[in-house]
């Protein structure tokens, strides 16, 4: 065991969005969650963000020199490591290439620090994809956080991108779901449902959640078609693709069940009032199938987790909310949950 704990790095996201504000608010509202965390970004930006969430300067933003310094800052202080050039004051709520570059540089620094074992993991505030693209190379080649992290992890490991498969898990207190495909059209998503890809999703989920739960997760697989195909009457994907993938997963020792009717499986996996649930996670076949149930239960509590990386990465389940930026009204609940989940994942669930 490491005698010295590692801090969590939190990246500010787009500096023109609500990311800096929800980080500052998380420090004010949940000091127990933000202990041993620091912001990898710009000191001036975080001071402006802190000014949005408090009326008097009673909660200082302090600059630190190394990640380890975050472990020794006094309570009631937000530590910031200046990992980007000192940023200009950018207007809240506007798409700006300079903001995209600052956001991208912060994520790149934090990702490399995590891969080097200097931080326990990273929590990423929301990026604005248009601003990131406007920043130019190398950031314009990444649609968002996941792709940037995946590329850096593959580079660090010295393997092709295809050998660093990742999956997105969305989770809140009541439900976890992992997606077979993410941001593609529904037509493309159906083509992406192959036995190999479903089995890969099960392997990644099994490995990731085993560490958190301390046991093999009980995984439920949602069907593709209504009623999970009704024995082939409504489509054969369950018979030809899902059942072979589940059979192989079972032979590998995974606790996997299904395929189940998509309209009921999420209810079976939802945590009940007594804390029990039939399944620990649902493997959903495409984006909306998996995310609608979780978001309906409360988007303000949702956390996005990237599974399959050799590092811990979580993020609030919302965007930059440019219309709210700078108004001091942003809700930090999802950010606080993302920090708590990152800490849980970094400690192996213990």
UniProtKB/TrEMBL annotation:
Species per Swiss-Prot/TrEMBL record: Limnohabitans lacus
Key words of the record: Metal-binding, NAD, Oxidoreductase
tRNA processing recorded as keyword: no
GO terms for MF: 4-hydroxythreonine-4-phosphate dehydrogenase activity
PANTHER family referenced in this protein's UniProt entry, alphabetically: 4-HYDROXYTHREONINE-4-PHOSPHATE DEHYDROGENASE
EC number(s) given by UniProt: 1.1.1.262
Gene name, Swiss-Prot/TrEMBL: pdxA
NCBIfam families given in the database record: pdxA (TIGR00557)
Keyword Metal-binding annotated: yes
Protein name according to UniProt: 4-hydroxythreonine-4-phosphate dehydrogenase PdxA
